[in-house]
Amino acid sequence: MAGVRWSMVQRVRFGDLDAMQHLNNVEYLRYFETARIDFLQDRLGKEHGPANRTGLGFIFGECKITFRSPAHYGEEVRTYIEPSRISRSTITLDFEMKAEGDGRLLAEGYGVLVGYDYEAGESRPLPDDLRQRLDMLRTDG
Fold first, then answer.
1. Domain holding 116: CATH number?
2. The domain containing residue 62 runs over which residues?
3. Helix ranges, the chain (H)
4. What span, in angstroms and rounded, lies between the C-alpha atoms of 37 and 22?
5. CA distances in angstroms from 35 to 108, 127, 129, listed in the order given
6. What is the average per-residue pLDDT within 46-70?
7. 1 lies in a domain?
8. In 13, 38, 58, 65, which residue has its Cα 20 to 30 A from 112's Cα atom?
9. What is the DSSP string of 59-77?
C-alpha cells in the first residue's frame, strides 16, 4: 500500500468542546490515539489492537502536536497517519488532521511508539518482518 495515505474520519461531538466552543486541545490527542489504533489494527492486524496484551505490542513513548486551526461542533475531522521513521525498537507515526468541509489544516504532529512486550513488562526490538511491513506503508516507500 505504498503511496496511499491511510485516514479515518471522526465527528466533533459537543462533549469534545472547551469553554471557547471549539475542539479542546486534549481531544486532538484523543482523535490521534483513536486513529493510530485503527491504523495499526487495519494495516498490521488485530494482534496490534489495545485488547491484545500478549506478545509484542506498542506503547506510547512521545507525542507532539502542533495546533493550526480550531475545529468546531459537528465538523468532520479526517486524520491521516503514516509511518515516517522506523528504527530498531520504535516507529514514528506522523499525523495530519484536516477539516473535511474546507480542507483546512487543524493539527499535525507525530507519535513515537516503542515495541513493548506486555507479558514481560519491558521494551523489545521490533521483529525484522514487522519493520519491513511498516516500511512498505510509507508513502515515500
1. 3.10.129.10
2. 6-136
3. 25-44, 128-136
4. 24
5. 13, 23, 23
6. 85
7. no
8. 13
9. EEEEEEEEE-S--BTT-EE
